[in-house]
Amino acid sequence: MKYHVFRAGSGDEMAITDDETGAKLPRREGAWVYDRPMEINVTDGPRIGANSSEIVSAVERDGYFILPQTPY
After folding, report:
1. What confidence tens digit (pLDDT) does each residue in 13-29 have?
2. Structurally, how many domains does the chain consist of?
3. Residue 14 domain-assigned?
4. Any domain includes 72
């Protein structure tokens, strides 16, 4: 499935979402900046510091996945 990677305008967080506009991403002090599209399937192996099934599950549940993981 096609996902979209965003980087935090400040800090080193990265977000993955299925919405290329970033509208589903949580609000931050700095803006989210679009980085690139990325294909992720639940059966893929680990990628960018997380298990693919964890990423897919979080996007389905919350609309996004944040790396590194931080409490909200």
Report:
1. 899 999 999 999 998 87
2. 1
3. yes
4. no
